[in-house]
Amino acid sequence: MANDPSETEIENMRLLCENVLQKVRDYYGMGVKVNSLSTPSLIPKVGGSTTSDHCKGFAADIEIPGIANADLAQWIADNCEFRQLILEFYTVGVPDSGWVHVSFNPADNKKQVLTATKQNGKTVYLPGLVA
Ligand SMILES: [Zn+2]
User: Count of alpha carbons within 13 Å of 111, Cβ hemisphere only?
Assistant: First the structure.
């Protein structure tokens, strides 16, 4: 499967790493587990959405082993520039449940913060960090 991101995508990934992932790593003093760092050329072939930030090459789904995803999301919200931050499917009391989605776009860093959760089997996005 071909994975050949454009120069813009590579630049956006570099900015995401520099402005979010590296800061998180420096603060927590341990590696960030990146579960998805995607490019348009790859996403459609693995069945992902073609409209999400992952497809523009500047979003990542991350976790840090041993750190509650709610705490990680809160720290990013307080300390980083980003376009969108989503605490995804976190269960209170289960620190490693869910994950944190974060995207970076130098032209559109509006710092939107959301919590994704399931209600009646459907994914809903609530404003802010709800945990
Ligand atoms: Zn994501």
Answer: 9
